[in-house]
Structures are given as C-alpha cells and as structure tokens.
Design a protein that fits this description.
The chain has 282 residues and is mainly beta. The protein has helices at residues 2-15, 24-33, 138-141; strands spanning 124-130, 143-148, 154-155, 159-162, 169-170, 175-176, 181-185, 196-197, 207-213, 216-223, 235-237, 253-255. The strands form 3 sheets. A 6-stranded mixed beta sheet has the order 8-7-2-1-11-12, with no helix packed on it. The chain has a 4-stranded antiparallel beta sheet with strand order 5-4-9-10, with no helix packed on it. Strands 3-6 form a two-stranded antiparallel sheet. It starts with a helix and ends in a 27-residue tail after the last strand.
Length: 282
Amino acid sequence: MRRAVVISVCVQVLAGCVSLPQDGDEALLLDAALEAELVLDGGSSRPPVGQPYRGPQCATSGPGWDGGAGMYLDGSDASVPPVGSGDGYGDDGNAGGGADPGFPIADAGMPEPQLPGPERAGDIVITEIMFDPKGRRDDAGEWIELWNASDGALSLEACVLDDGGTTPRKLTALLLEPGAFATIGRGADAGFLPDIVAPLTLTNTSDTVALLCDGIEIDRVSYDGGFVLKAGATLSLDPATSTSIDNDDPANWCSGVDDYGGDLGSPGLPNPSCTPSDAGVL
C-alpha cells in the first residue's frame, strides 16, 4: 500500500506543482523516493532527509494550474486562464510564459510619467530679483523669485534659466503649486534657504533674466537704469501687476523693504505693494 502511494505521488510531482502530504508515513516514504534529487524549479526541491517534502516551489509562476478543473491546485479561483502556447520564457506576456500562467510584471520597462510643466507665456512670472546683495557676497546672495500664475501644479523639470550666460541654467524638478513661489539662489546661503540652487550671475546695472521650458519662453525681465536699482534691496514687482506683460514695465517695480537677514526683499512670499515709501535704506 505504501509503495503504491509513493509511486502515485511521484507521478503527480512530475506532472506539475502539487500539494503533497504534510505529515505521516507517506511523507517519510516520499523522502526515500526523492533520493535522486528531483528538481522542477531550477534548484533542488528536496528537503533535508527526515523532513516531510512540501512540494516543488514553482516560484516564477504562482500556484499550479489544474488545467481541466479551472482551479489552481491550492483551491483558489483561477483568474488567469492557461496560456495555449509559448516556450516557457515569458513570451506570452506572463512572468513564466508557456502553458503555465504567470503574473504580469507591473510597469516593467515603462518610463516614469513626466509631471506637467509650463506650456504658455505667463504660466510662471518672475516677481523678484536680487541683483546686488549687501548682506553677503554676490556668489551667495543673488537670487530670483518665480510665481505660479496658472491654476495647476507645474514642474520645472524641463525648464532652464537664461541669465545672459553662454549656457542656460538647468533647473531641478521642483513642483510648484498654483499661486506658490519658488526661489532660485546662486548659493545655498542667500540669507534664506533657496528652493533651487543654480549658478546664475546678475550684473548690478543691467541684465536679462528669462525662464524657458521645453524651448518656450515663459517669462523674461530686462532691467536697466529705468528701474529703481538699490544695492542691498531687491527689484520687487507690485502684486497688482503680476503678469508676464506687466512685469516688462519698470514703473511696476520698486525696491524691497522687508529685512530677511541683512538685505531687503521678500523671498518666497507675496511682495508688498509698491508705494513711494518703499525705498528702504540699509
């Protein structure tokens, strides 16, 4: 009787992944029947001598398929039908391929989705420029401020900052929420912690700053002697004129007035309205 059980179980093992006896004499007898190191899954499926055999580990293709019964051999519902053809190497879109259904590999080889960026002029507006700091050196204290004027979150991943240098400054993939500000500093210590650090360079008397995303110019500001230029104070755009058209007019800019650590401005915050009294002196 025991010999018949062993022969029957070995036939099932050769046919596929099955649930084998867990305890008792049949499991011990099966140990003896597997002395030839039976392997079905690419590695040894034989337990140490004296321990019950738990069945082959079909690890690459999930529970075994019963074929005619429409059920997995562990009793669970078969949600994936058996594949009718294939060579067992995943060419049917399954992890295991062939007639043994595998589990699809999610997102295998798929690129990461890119967050939406600015697409039109005025989606993001340049609202503040620190061109000549006094509280620290230029290579640490220069910075500009951007404002998301759109009604959606925008990523700066595909954007560059053109400060008139030979190479535009690539920006990091910062996500800017609607109505939020972002600061781009020349150094990490600008009197505050900038959201992005980029090697921008601004002159004290005239310069141009432009934001381009995917080759589209989103905003540009060119300042010169027609603007109120004060050392140690930012060029601050009046919040009532925060558009990519209105910020071309020098009359809509004034000097920053709020101290942020030795210089005047409001990095990362809404600008105060421009009035004649805004001419702060350090």
